[in-house]
Write a structure and sequence with these properties.
The chain has 78 residues and is α+β, with helices and mostly antiparallel strands. The longest helix is centred in the last third of the chain and has 12 residues. The protein is flat, with a radius of gyration of 13 Å. The N and C termini lie far apart (45 Å).
């Protein structure tokens, strides 16, 4: 059986721009553990990873998470 490629092998550690990674705590499609794996493959100096505890998969774009999303964008832009 072929092994699954690791995100760590995808070259994400070379990303030089700020990256905002936002996960929904109630997301069954991309749970925080899976999103954290993506965030951990990126450079810690340029990555901001946050979990919005009450958000599901599509709620990340809803009004309930607008403040968290705005904060990530503002931080990345500064």
């Amino acid at each position: 059986m072929a092994s699954t490629p690791s995100l760590r092998d995808a070259g994400l550690h070379e990303v030089a721009c700020p990256v905002a990674v936002l996960a929904g705590g109630r997301d069954p499609i991309a749970p925080p553990e899976a999103v954290a794996e993506l965030a951990e493959a990126l450079p810690t100096s340029t990555t901001d990873y946050r979990v919005e505890p009450d958000a599901g998969h599509f709620e990340i774009c809803a009004d309930s998470t607008a403040n968290a999303t705005r904060a990530l964008i503002t931080q990345a832009a500064s």
